[in-house]
Amino acid sequence: xxxxxxxxxxxxxxxxxxxxxxxxxxxxxxxxxxxxxxxxxxxxxxxxxxxxxxxxxxxxxxxxxxxxxxxxxxxxxxxxxxxxxxxx
Length: 88
Description:
The protein has 88 residues and is α+β, with helices and mostly antiparallel strands. It has a single domain (3-56, 73-85), classed as Glutaredoxin, CATH 3.40.30. It has helices at 12-28, 41-50, 77-85; strands at residues 3-7, 32-36, 61-64, 70-72. A four-stranded mixed β-sheet has the order 2-1-3-4, sandwiched between helices. Strand 3 and strand 4 form a beta hairpin. It is globular and about 30 Å long. The two termini are 13 Å apart. 22% of the residues are buried.
């Protein structure tokens, strides 16, 4: 499963999501690849490529490369889990 999280180190919404992402990784036994975009131009470029229709335009931005599902902004745990599992 290829799960990506684009985040900003100082982003308050990203900070709020960190414990939920950690819980998701533990519960599902998956790894969410975390890509910091505010201080890493290559990661920010990749974020823009994954956000082709500019759905989000910022962080946090989550991409499930297996299903194509994307999430923008801070969400609740249930929404994050549905994104990660493809609704399973």
